[in-house]
Amino acid sequence: MQFHSRTPVIVVSHEFWRGVLNGDSSAIGRTVGVNGTAFTVIGVAPAGFRGVFTPLVTSAWVPLMMQPRVRPKASLESASMSWLWTFGRLEEGVSREAARQELLALTAARIAERVEPEWMRKNDGIRLVSLTGLPDDAQKTMLAFTGVLLGVAFLVLLIASVNVAAMLSARAVARQHEMAIRVALGAGRTRLVRQLLTESLVVFALGAAGGLSVAFLATRMLERIPLPTSMPLSLHLTPDVRVLTFALAIALACGVLFGLAPALRAAKLDITSRLRNDSRTGDARKGIVSNALVVGQLALSLVLLVSAGLLLRALDRGNRVDPRFDVNGVVTAAFKSEAWGYNEQQSRVFFNALRERVLATPGVTNVSYAAQLPLQMSSSGTFVQFDGEDATPGARTKGTRVETNSVDVDYFSVVKIPLLMGRAFQQSDDAHATRVAVVNETLARKHWPNGSAIGRTFIAQKEQITVVGVVRDAKYGTLTEVTPEMVYYPTAQAWPNEQTLMIRMNGTAESISGAVQDATRSLDPVLPRPEVVTLRTATSFVLLPQRWPRW
């Protein structure tokens, strides 16, 4: 079935259909509003389908040709579409490299036509990765994290198995007389070993059942904890059939591995000494095995203890890292005006009016906007040219890479980043004024080490920018980053498609949240209700390992 691009259509998720549309069987053909645009429901996704990125909560899908309705400025004709992901299924027998070479051949002519510098034309940007349910850039981080968890779990399993082996060994010594009687009655060694192994396997199976029960309860509790992210995420952590099978296989393997030696010792056919309860013949061997088990337990416990100590030390050090801005007393709300169908002029009117209404709210001390919040594990970099760097297209040097952010008046006051020299942005720094910027001290120190950065200029996107202020360095993307060179532009001169409202307050977050939502509805009743969160929550994803004990 084909639809014209002027016919907005949508496929909703099963959860959305049941929760919002009340599971109505006649939902097909109904309309739902998406950022003020009416979309016709043409289908409901199967239950449990979560799209290609499974942690992301997706309520609906629209055809790519409907992209101008939801992201007007993210043009499909743009040479750079970092937001666009392409998926395909390889034919049987076709390798990934062969498919990549074919794609390179198909795009070679388009790449050659680019009027970009040579270094960009050589970067074909084609990379094929397997679809795993996670974005490619998150897979390595997730694998490293799960690897650490598996390593810790393996140590705990090994210690527990050695403990059980020691108990089985001690139990085997206590049952020597019983085993001798069984042998005297005709039981063979193989039968005794089989019986003792069965007993050890039952013990390990019961341990696996208990561990899985705890895992079910713990993961269900973890799934209910809201994740501090700007996007709706939902992690399915409950063990499935694969996890149950793996756990059972590990339990049986450990039962055989650590139960075999005690079983073999207990099944020795030294009937005479055992019936007389004379265990002197086995004292030496028993002492060696017992000592080996004790040494193994101590060694593994020491490794686990040292690892736990290092982890706690790392968490404490991470918790003490100063982001060099104040996350306390600030609430945020993200807005995507381009998705509402607003043009730049309409967006400017809306954000200015929202600022005035929120600023008049009791308990609000300052209000500003930013294109990007700090500590979001992301960056927005570009190349600029300072004195002596060639800014012409096709130049061999592409300039200096700097991180950028568009911020409004009073941004530095809201996040409490001190101004070291010069001035902050003012209302007069509008679209008709001289292009200005505020830089961090790392950039100023590197490019103007022998003088003040105030009044100096650089070239960005063929425009001359004048530095009017220098602020203190801060943490921008992550806590462990090497401080980059940072350039702040006023939003009036570098208007972003998406902005985040930032409010420094004296009151409670709940009261400010209601005021922001009321102000938004009063300005445009069709807009979706903004989610208001504290800046501490908004930045806590990158701080999650350090701050989880405080939650």
Q: Give the number of helices.
A: 16
Radius of gyration: 32 Å
**Shape label:** elongated
Mean pLDDT, as a whole number? 81
Q: What structural class do you assign from the helix and strand content? A: alpha+beta
Helix content: 40-55%
How would you sum up this structure in a few lines?
By secondary structure, this protein is α+β, with helices and mostly antiparallel strands.
What can you see in these coordinates?
The protein is 42% helix and 15% strand. It has helices spanning 14-19, 67-70, 96-112, 118-121, 136-174, 176-184, 189-223, 241-266, 271-275, 283-319, 344-359, 411-415, 441-447, 509-523, 535-539, 544-547; strands at 9-12, 31-34, 37-44, 60-61, 330-336, 364-370, 381-384, 400-407, 419-422, 436-440, 457-460, 463-471, 486-490, 498-505, 532-534. The strands form three sheets. Strands 7, 8, 9, 10, 11, 12 and 13 form a seven-stranded mixed β-sheet that branches. Helix 7 (189-223) runs antiparallel to helix 8. The model is unreliable at 546-551 (pLDDT under 50).
